[in-house]
Specification:
Layout (H helix, E strand, L loop, with lengths): L1 H21 L8 H4 L2 H6 L10 E17 L8 E14 L6 E9 L7 E5 L14 H4 L3 E6 L10 H4 L9 H26 L9 E7 L1 H12 L6 E5 L5 H7 L2 H9 L5 H15 L13 H7 L9 E4 L18 E4 L2 H12 L25 E3 L4 E3 L4 H11 L16 H14 L12 H5 L3 E7 L7 H15 L5 H9 L2 E6 L13 E2 L3 H11 L6 E5 L10 E4 L5 E6 L5 E6 L3 H5 L14
Parallel strand pairs: 4-5, 4-6, 6-7, 7-12, 12-13
Antiparallel strand pairs: 1-2, 2-3, 3-5, 8-9, 10-11, 14-15, 15-16, 17-18
Helix pairs in contact: 8-13, 8-14, 13-14, 16-17
The structure holds 2-acetamido-2-deoxy-beta-D-glucopyranose (12 copies) and calcium ion.
């Protein structure tokens, strides 16, 4: 197989030039004429990466006409889209995996000299083809990779242990940063060849993804300064050891204190927090736009005694998010319920009160603390989140256990701290993804647009603030705050998204940044700096559905005011010192600085 690939590679390399030229005024070529297996084989990026051997026979290509792209959180609806759907595989001789890459290339008449890489979520390196429309709609080829983990529905956790039980370095590094980089280099060259671009024509290159995909974006910006002209990074699950293991915190404190609040009681607290904090931003609209002010003034005692009542819910068998059935729940919120809610949002600390990681902002959901109902005993117990369990067992301990932590009941808050320290050290160079010096990317002219839902209950918003501030301080240590901020903002802007949850809107009137790619395209290709970030109210429950809004660039924060004509306006202002400081942490549980 490898021999035949080498053979075809050289034959095709020789013919590619002529074929490419024949369509070089490619905007006049029809999609049907270029979207063939033959033409794609001739356009393969055969020599793009040393040590990568493309299997020419693996190519699939089919034209898709007049498709409708239903609106998602990251692009509005588009009709009448036509593209070439391409897959092929490659290997690294001497290593054992076979990687499949998947690209959509726009119809030649719609191509605008752009390429987009996309990423995954959770333990997935890919979102299958769900993010690819967001490139096609803007005249960009778009790519995703299975990382070599066994297909586009596979998770890295399926293959991270070798058959003999040891950790697979190949898989860890492929997931950490290698596969996205390869997919990008191959995708850019495939695009150049397919559209017959001369070497001197600019191909603008972009990245866009959220969550694990956000971490993957940072992994590239930190290491491969010329892969992207613009990277759009949402709620990155970066600072990997802290982030993955923090998902065990809610269960840990429930187990440690033996208190299991009913999920309905925690929801009642969340709603009451929304009621208390909604007006603090100057606009009572069912949304907390200033979770920092909420944190500073929250009256926890007010929640004790609230009534709650929830209907029974059925079990969900979704393999990615199985949820047990819950019985009907009603009662009044107790001081114990409030204590667990408070400790959950407070995030991990040690028994001595040293801080291990950042807090979640008040107003977020409590998913990591949601107890599970045991129908046999009628009792509630803690729920171990898979993201945390698999990182602890597969990655750190190299044990083939994915549904429980066998010794969890012996853990204390200090055990969690120690596990984070172990995971951090073990994967510092590959998964931690917090390298704070982006000079090479800046010098190559790259731009970053980074955003994070303020009410994200999975990846805390403050974790993104911490990275932005690490970059600012590391790159411009001698400048004043304002000067260093201006210097960073020349190439990197960060926005908190009012009322948004994890990579999606949450509170009904959330203004969500649905048009990040066109905003980034304007920044990169026309120099239009995104001083505020374009956002749209996109939830059907919104009172203001479809309204445009502008998100403030960190550290500026929204302030709403209503004038005598009852007109509400929004300004972006520097927060008070106390509000600013509520986002900043001294992670004193570790002797090493956490970037
Ligand atoms: C193809 O294009 C290259 C450079 O763009 C040029 O050198 C070459 O002569 C062209 N070949 C044909 C057959 O037109
Ligand atoms: C494209 O799709 C739309 C909606 O599905 C349909 O109304 C229209 O006739 C199609 N156009 C072509 C050229 O097929
Ligand atoms: C794209 O190609 C893959 C692989 O052949 C196939 O599974 C998928 O259904 C195709 N998608 C479309 C929209 O044609
Ligand atoms: C891990 O456990 C799963 C399920 O029991 C099994 O299918 C798999 O082969 C095991 N892997 C290793 C490396 O032992
Ligand atoms: C376990 O398997 C991996 C992958 O096949 C191999 O590289 C490694 O040497 C093996 N380790 C042991 C202890 O056999
Ligand atoms: C591409 O640009 C280089 C450097 O400016 C120049 O030497 C070369 O002739 C150009 N090639 C083409 C095909 O225009
Ligand atoms: C809570 O429910 C009890 C009994 O149903 C009722 O007497 C009480 O007034 C309710 N309290 C509030 C604050 O609604
Ligand atoms: C508990 O089990 C009973 C009997 O099997 C069933 O009717 C009920 O729906 C179950 N409740 C939950 C919350 O699973
Ligand atoms: C809640 O947590 C904060 C720290 O985040 C603490 O100062 C406060 O006393 C706690 N309140 C209650 C009721 O536990
Ligand atoms: C259920 O919880 C109660 C009180 O928390 C405890 O006494 C009892 O042993 C538990 N039952 C089972 C079967 O775990
Ligand atoms: C900004 O969002 C609005 C909708 O809220 C949209 O119409 C407009 O095209 C967007 N601007 C850019 C640059 O994408
Ligand atoms: C001001 O506007 C709000 C919401 O649009 C409305 O509910 C309220 O009645 C208005 N107040 C006055 C004094 O017009
Ligand atoms: Ca509000």
């Amino acid at each position: 197989m490898a021999l035949s690939s080498f053979f075809w590679a050289s034959v095709l390399a020789a013919t590619a030039q002529a074929v490419t030229n024949s369509t070089s005024s490619s905007s006049s070529a029809s999609l049907a004429s270029v979207c063939t297996t033959d033409y794609v084989q001739q356009s393969l990026p055969i020599d793009a990466i040393d040590g990568v051997v493309i299997d020419v026979d693996s190519v699939t290509a089919n034209a898709v006409y007049n498709a409708t792209f239903t609106a998602s959180d990251f692009f509005p609806q588009f009709n009448g889209q036509s593209y070439c759907n391409v897959t092929f595989t490659y290997t690294h001789p001497g290593r054992e995996n076979t990687v499949t890459v998947w690209y959509w290339l726009p119809a030649p008449s719609a191509f605008k000299n752009r390429y987009l890489s996309t990423g995954g979520g959770g333990y997935s390196i890919t979102s299958q083809d769900s993010s690819l429309p967001g490139g096609i709609a803007y005249g960009a080829s778009a790519g995703t990779t299975d990382g070599g983990f066994g297909g586009f529905n596979a998770q890295v956790t399926d293959v991270v242990l070798n058959a003999n039980g040891s950790l697979s370095d190949e898989v860890v590094y492929s997931f950490g940063y290698r596969s996205i980089h390869e997919m990008t280099v191959l995708g850019k060259q495939l695009t150049r060849n397919f559209f017959g671009m001369g070497d001197n024509t600019t191909l603008y290159s972009y990245y866009q993804a959220c969550s694990e995909g956000g971490r993957e974006g940072w992994s590239q910006v930190q290491r491969f300064p010329t892969d992207f002209d613009g990277a759009i990074i949402g709620a990155p699950a970066m600072r990997y050891a802290h982030q993955q293991l923090q998902h065990l915190w809610g269960a840990l404190i429930e187990m440690y204190y033996g208190i299991y609040p009913k999920p309905c009681a925690l929801s009642a607290i969340q709603s009451a927090v929304l009621d208390q904090c909604d007006p603090l931003d100057g606009k009572t609209d069912g949304m907390i736009s200033r979770s920092d002010l909420c944190f500073l003034s929250l009256d926890w005692d007010a929640f004790i005694g609230l009534n709650y009542s929830c209907e029974a819910t059925a079990a969900s068998t979704n393999p990615f998010n199985p949820v047990a059935a819950t019985p009907a729940q009603s009662g009044t919120v107790t001081a114990d319920d409030v204590r667990i809610a408070n400790l959950t949002w407070d995030g991990p600390t040690t028994l001595n009160g040293e801080r291990v990681y950042v807090r979640w902002q008040p107003g977020t959901g409590f998913s990591d603390a949601d107890a599970t109902y045991n129908n046999a005993t009628g009792n509630w117990s803690y729920t171990l989140q898979t993201l945390g369990v698999e990182f602890a067992e597969l990655f750190i301990r190299e044990q083939n256990v994915t549904d429980t932590i066998p010794d969890f009941e012996e853990w204390t808050p200090d055990t969690l701290r120690d596990m984070i320290y172990l995971g951090w050290q073990k994967f510092d160079s590959v998964l931690q993804t917090t390298w704070p010096d982006l000079s090479a990317f800046r010098d190559a002219g790259g731009k970053v647009l980074h955003f994070h839902g303020e009410s994200d209950g999975s990846v805390p918003a403050a974790s993104s603030v911490r990275y932005f501030e690490s970059v600012r301080k590391t790159m411009y240590p001698k400048l004043s705050y304002n000067d260093s901020l201006a210097a960073v903002n020349d190439f990197y802007r960060f926005y908190l998204v009012e009322g948004a949850g994890h990579c999606s809107p949450s509170q009904c009137n959330t203004p969500f940044p649905q048009t990040n790619l066109p905003v980034m395209i304007e920044w990169v290709e026309q120099g239009v700096e995104p001083v505020t970030l374009n956002a749209t109210v996109i939830q059907s429950c919104a009172t203001d559905y479809g309204a445009n809004d502008q998100l403030c660039s960190w550290p500026l924060r929204p302030v709403y005011s209503t004038n005598s004509n009852n007109v509400t306006s929004k300004t972006c202002e520097f927060p008070s010192e106390a509000a600013f400081n509520s986002w900043i942490y001294d992670l004193d549980a570790f002797p090493i600085y956490v970037y």
